[in-house]
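Appendix C reproduces, verbatim, an entry submitted by the partner laboratory led by Prof. M.T., so that reviewers can inspect both the input and the predicted structure.
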Amino acid sequence: MKLKFILLAGLFISILSANAQSVTGKWKTFDDETKEAKSIVEITERDGKIYGKVIEILNPAKKNIKCTNCSGTDKDKPVLGLEILKGLSKDGKEYSDGKILDPSNGKLYKCIVSLDGSDKLKVRGYIGISAFGRTQNWVRVK
């Protein structure tokens, strides 16, 4: 009986640990200049790739903004509901080989995403090589 309990407890802890180490979930983003909370992005997995879309805009004055500087199918779409993380693949402890869209300027950047603990996400957008970019820290929403 004790052995079954220990095995079940171990399995339960393993499942919780695996979930805590996933990038999927809801993440709060912050403005680079003001450091104020900006939006909530929900990261999901589809067909083995990671995608993230804006599910909430925290500044009431910006709730209805559109991606006027975007191109292609994202042009003039509302930022609320916009997919900004596109097609990242797991590569060891990171997710890469995808893109991130900056709705404020409409540009697509290469992207690397990695967990920093279980509740912080490092999101790096760059042009060319990773050295030419910037990193944002997102915080998990519980």
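The chain has one helix and eight strands. Additional entries are available on request from the coordinating office.
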